[in-house]
Design goal:
- The chain is an all-alpha fold.
- 78% of the residues lie in helices and 0% in strands.
- It is built from ten helices and no strands.
- Mean pLDDT is 81; it is low at 71-80 and 82-86.
């Protein structure tokens, strides 16, 4: 009972701190002119435009296919019992398709726009610590490589989670709820990508970063929910997301001193 009370207390605290970071983000962005210096890197602007257009097209296309592509009779069944184990391959295929829709296109967008997320994270930390810093091209490349590794692992973990959640819920005839639970799973992974950019500035390797973010899972999920909502807005959402998400994650990390490591 005491453990449950502690978990709830931590969850509430992290959500409140994330909301505070969200409130601080827009004034901070305006006051500190975070876009200044970005346009010196014209290739970043090109990536932003291309990424937002491609994602918007992909999102609309996926939404259409998600709602209008008929499912097989096997997958449409609402429950899964031991006598239905032969249908697991169909379930895996269908849940994989849903996973690609739910998280895949967002992951690809974040990979493409990582240079912007990294740029804003670096500049935000520099302002907060009053230590001017300008990222080098080599650092951009390193950050991109790291984001690719993060998103590939998160994508695989997401598909695995979706399959397991679907099968467990289907046993009790509740498979229709899998989408609800997976929304929060993917929100966590999306928020993870932004918080990892903060940890990267303090030279955390991926294993260390994953452990630290796990301690801030409610904050990561809250950030991911906001990002998912923004990405639902065609074109504009994809443009705003890397800037706002990076500022929010960095402000949260700074306010909570995530760089101190595992609590």
């Amino acid at each position: 009972m005491a453990q449950n009370h502690t978990d709830i207390s931590i969850a509430v605290k992290q959500v409140v701190q994330t909301i505070q970071a969200i409130k601080q983000s827009i004034p901070f962005f305006k006051e500190n002119k975070l876009l200044q210096g970005l346009f010196e890197h014209k290739w970043i602007v090109v990536l932003l435009i291309i990424g937002s257009l491609l994602y918007s097209y992909s999102f609309v296309k996926d939404v259409y296919e998600f709602f209008y592509t008929p499912l097989t009779d096997d997958v449409l069944q609402s429950s899964l019992t031991t006598s239905d184990l032969g249908k697991i391959s169909d379930v895996v295929k269908e849940e994989g398709r849903k996973a690609a829709f739910t998280g895949g296109s967002k992951y690809l967008l974040l990979i493409l726009l990582e240079v912007i997320i990294f740029f804003v994270s670096v500049k935000t930390i520099a302002i907060l610590n009053n230590e001017p810093r300008k990222p080098t091209f080599k650092e951009f490349v390193r950050a991109e490589q790291r984001m690719i590794k993060v998103m590939i692992k998160n994508f695989i973990l997401g598909i695995m989670a979706q399959i397991v959640i679907y099968i467990v819920l289907a046993i009790f005839g509740l498979s229709s709820l899998s989408g609800f639970f997976m929304f929060f799973v993917y929100a966590y992974f999306i928020g993870f990508a932004f918080l990892d950019n903060y940890n990267e500035q303090f030279e955390f390797n991926l294993k260390e970063s994953r452990k630290v973010i796990q301690q801030h899972k409610y904050a990561s999920t809250t950030i991911g929910i906001l990002i998912s909502g923004l990405l639902a807005v065609p074109v504009i959402g994809a443009i705003v997301t890397p800037f706002l998400g990076a500022v929010i994650a960095t402000l949260y990390g700074h306010n909570c001193q995530m760089e101190e490591g595992i609590a």
